[in-house]
Amino acid sequence: AVGEGMDNNDKELLMSHMNFEKKFGQSAIFVTSTLMEEGGVPPSSSPAALLKEAIHVISCGYEDKTEWGLELGWIYGSITEDILTGFKMHCRGWRSIYCMPKRAAFKGSAPINLSDRLNQVLR
């Protein structure tokens, strides 16, 4: 059984963690960030781990069977669901940030303007 051989403090910690998972889903980084005073991410998180976790959290099934999905999740059934979801989250006190990660330089030889593109098509 869960909690066998544990003292009361460990059991409380485990139950608290399970409650956070039920509320916010099974992303350790996301759950930890909800406990941080000013939000943010745990300092030990690497950019690669954060990107992987972000992709996991935004996946279609992440919010299933969580309070996050019921109370704060995406709004479906509208052509403007992204706007409605953002508005709903802001009304509940969430903040947005602008995130523009560095990208690798373009790799290839595609034309950079319309006239070069049209020249390439004619060849």
From TrEMBL:
A GO cellular component annotation in the UniProt record: endomembrane system
UniProt signal peptide: none
Subcellular location: Endomembrane system
Organism, as annotated: Populus alba (White poplar)
Membrane listed as a keyword: yes
Protein name: Cellulose synthase
GO biological process: cell wall organization; cellulose biosynthetic process
Record carries keyword Methyltransferase: no
A GO molecular-function annotation: cellulose synthase (UDP-forming) activity
Keywords: Cell wall biogenesis/degradation, Glycosyltransferase, Membrane, Transferase, Transmembrane, Transmembrane helix
Domain of life of the native organism: Eukaryota
InterPro entries for the chain: Cellulose_synth
Principal subcellular localisation of the protein: membrane
